[in-house]
Amino acid sequence: ELKVEQNPLFLSMQEGKNYTIYCNYSTTSDRLYWYRQDPGKSLESLFVLLSNGAVKQEGRLMASLDTKARLSTLHITAAVHDLSATYFCAGGGAAGNKLTFGGGTRVLVKP
Amino acid sequence: GAVVSQHPSRVICKSGTSVKIECRSLDFQATTMFWYRQFPKQSLMLMATSNEGSKATYEQGVEKDKFLINHASLTLSTLTVTSAHPEDSSFYICSARDILTGYGYTFGSGTRLTVV
Question: Which of A53, B25, B33, B108 is 20 to 30 A from B2 (CA-CA)?
Answer without folding.
Answer: A53
